[in-house]
């Protein structure tokens, strides 16, 4: 509905919103591309199996022969197009030589480090590699996003190099020393050995080198392909030439060395698969897609799918089911050694996908504007307001640095941060110790603590976010984040309590044996950490209250700076004063309360009502503490008296306690989220409304809405009806002053003089209805008078 | 002048009568189609869980019992949805001046959060199992999961037909007709209609006066509210519940597939991979709902207005006598109800009433239901 009317308002002037390229009808090509990439992965895995049996050069020769045959068949480079000159033949010859070398490197890398890693390393499109190189070697890389992408890429390569513990097995199994097939491979081996790395790592380096070469090669051959008459024709001719090039070498090879292959006829199907999937289909589909789509989209989808399918195949290629599926074209002898899927490969695959995604994304300059209308000359006007600019990606290190600085600035968030660090350190020590002593209990407990830390991280993030400036989209600012985070924390605790409850009931019925000797030190350690947390928070709270007062005071200042600019001079001294006063008193009240009670739980509830964010985190810490106390107590009971039932009873008690203590928090957060009038100001507001009623000239008010937006912002709106001969501005000022006294610091007052008309137009009956109604009434009046003459 | 005041102290809540209250809840549940569907589906689910629990206890199989507890946990989502659909119909009172319509957003949010938790747990368990696959007794898995699948399918159909259709039918139609008058003509007249309109309006309101307008306006407003509440309440709750059911269904499909794979091919790794995929799917599908509800709860400018607003600001600023516009706040109360406040700085000699009505018109066209405009007169 919105779209339609805004479109109408623009007088048929197109769609509003971010300017974008229409992406309809591209799905077909994307699906085609994905399918092709999938098949290419299949082809490469097949090629790896083939290369175990067939010599490298022979393999390349056969592939080139087959592809040359099919390409010539499809393209007919000799009968169609203009004739090729001698100079161009020389260039094609060079092209073929370089192409051969690159494919030699490629397939050699394939034999060294397996199809999965080859796919990961070599199947990057030109766009990705070019932007990577431009980031690495030029100063104008294209912003922090690209830098991030490049960093991901490098991390991925390093992961493959260092954290991939596959080389050992592969090396031992596959290349016994002194058995090399040809001079070429021998040379390559010696080079790799000279560099001092293992075979498979050498393969990785080789593939990176080949990738760079490939991109350079593509760039260089672009001009030639235009000269010759299309990339397809060039490809066909180049394949043909390379066949001729490789021919003598293959003949010599096959004469000098005896072949490992028993029957060539069984290899026909695999070769055809490889030729079609890896070379021909991929080439054609990619050329079609790069015409129809942008190169970047093409690159993104293609690389994503090929990596995912590579991972899948890497896991399932040796599985019996795939063996069954490809029984028809399975090479006759199948070695059992495979490059296994290790953790390093998975991590690097994830990083490759990320980096390909980032690097291939187009630079977004000039695309984020919002069409707001048309200038008188008819040119479109765009709006680049605040958040549109903010959305451009930030530099990650700088972001972290700034947020750290912000965290450390404020007392509360600093406390949370330190506590988080302590918690994390404890967790890691626990995990490390658990791994070292190989105790499963410690490890699982460590993970549990890590999970708990997420609540702290969320609280910290919320504390950070609340300080963000209001944007055009979030016009009230981000103050509500703290309430939301309190709410989420509360829910989280509820769920945990529920699960603990369930488990303890299950244990009550059937108490399990617990080995108690390990439990005590760990739970004592946890207790200490949590106690530190409680101390930190209760301190932070007492400071936090006063800080909170200051904070809101700040806010009110900014607010009246604002009203000052409009120049109603009298009221603001008043505002600031009364406001500050009221807040001060409430803060003081809280302090005395605390001093009087000194009881822990009372303070807790104070916290809940006044500082929702904190209480969320605080409750979490408290629950953890209770948990550790319970564990210790129950351990003692079990050890001393052998009461196995103590443990579930303890956890039942704790779960109930958590549950009960969370409920007020949740209720409070719910009330704020449901836009309730803030309970502590309800009385004041009612008094204020009565006062408004008594202002001279005010007839009535309607729709008074007040709600607590965040801890410090109370927003409000009201309609005031006044008699027609009163100064509107005076009313607005008086109403604002009264409500400011009551604690509302973000107020909008609408003054209405003609009640009826305003209502009609305000209540969405619209302009025309009002017009029609007034006309009707008028005509009726005239009609009654009898003086109405058309 | 008689003082008018609202005496809320005199209003005593009626004696707490559990029976009457429960029957009232029932009536309000059964009155609306959405909540009725929810209620019936909840009953179905609960009875299934009970049957499973009883059978589990009878046959002494721990797996069935734990599964039935899982189903009870699932029912909380439905319960939350149901509670929200009842609560969101409560009238607004002094404390909750906007009524309880936001309960629906909150319910959607809670549902989304629960789903995220569930997805996380499933995922972590899947990872654990992928590392060391346990041997699963798949002979009992299949019938239970098929039964669960059927129950969930019923749920999907109920909500597809009943809920969705309903929200489309009544919600859309209603708001459409409300807006139609103002909107379809609004623009064509916008330019020259101003002065005309102004004269009429002026003449009238003086005659007919305030008291009438006032009471009428108030009444109408409330009416409007509750209507919107009814029409819009379906969307967010239903989306949450629907997603929940779809997630469950996907879960049972995954279990069925993996059970078949395990039985026929002995692929033990199928189970964790299936569950991880399901968890990912749930996670991805829940993100839009969470994003939307967080946006609403944080008083975000509604995304559907985001593009129309700058244009509206421009038009307001082009009105005669308006100097500038500041502090615009637009936010969503509940589905399709947008509320806005803004402040205008106008020239001292400008006609406030005319500007007010024009601004109201402009924003009404964009779809803002309630608008509060504070007019500040610039100093000379």
UniProtKB/TrEMBL annotation, chain A:
It is found in: Cytoplasmic vesicle, COPII-coated vesicle membrane; Cytoplasmic vesicle, Secretory vesicle membrane; Golgi apparatus, Golgi stack membrane; Golgi apparatus, trans-Golgi network membrane. Residues 416-674 form the Cation efflux protein transmembrane domain. GO terms for biological process: intracellular zinc ion homeostasis; zinc ion import into Golgi lumen. InterPro entries: Cation_efflux (IPR002524), Cation_efflux_TM (IPR058533), Cation_efflux_TMD_sf (IPR027469), Msc2-like (IPR045316). Residues 548-589 are annotated as: Disordered. One of its GO terms (cellular component) is ER to Golgi transport vesicle membrane. Its main location: membrane. One of its GO terms (molecular function) is metal ion binding. Pfam families: Cation_efflux. Keywords: Antiport, Cytoplasmic vesicle, Golgi apparatus, Ion transport, Membrane, Metal-binding, Transmembrane, Transmembrane helix, Transport, Zinc, Zinc transport. Residues 554-570 have a biased composition (Basic residues). The chain crosses the membrane at residues 54-74, 95-112, 183-213, 234-255, 267-285, 297-319, 339-359, 416-435, 447-465, 486-506, 518-537, 600-623, 643-666. It is a multi-pass membrane protein. It catalyses: Zn(2+)(in) + 2 H(+)(out) = Zn(2+)(out) + 2 H(+)(in). The keyword Nuclease does not apply. Heterodimer with SLC30A6/ZNT6; form a functional zinc ion transmembrane transporter. Functions as a zinc transporter. Belongs to the cation diffusion facilitator (CDF) transporter (TC 2.A.4) family. SLC30A subfamily. This is Zinc transporter.
UniProtKB/TrEMBL annotation, chain B:
It catalyses: Zn(2+)(in) = Zn(2+)(out). InterPro entries: Cation_efflux (IPR002524), Cation_efflux_TM (IPR058533), Cation_efflux_TMD_sf (IPR027469), Msc2-like (IPR045316). Coiled coil: none annotated. One of its GO terms (molecular function) is zinc ion transmembrane transporter activity. Residues 204-225 have a biased composition (Basic and acidic residues). It comes from the Eukaryota. One of its GO terms (cellular component) is membrane. Keywords: Cytoplasmic vesicle, Golgi apparatus, Ion transport, Membrane, Sarcoplasmic reticulum, Transmembrane, Transmembrane helix, Transport, Zinc, Zinc transport. Residues 38-298 form the Cation efflux protein transmembrane domain. Residues 167-225 are annotated as: Disordered. NCBIfam families: CDF (TIGR01297). Zinc ion transporter mediating zinc entry from the cytosol into the lumen of organelles along the secretory pathway. By contributing to zinc ion homeostasis within the early secretory pathway, regulates the activation and folding of enzymes like alkaline phosphatases. This is Zinc transporter. It comes from Limosa lapponica baueri. The lineage of its organism: Eukaryota, Metazoa, Chordata, Craniata, Vertebrata.
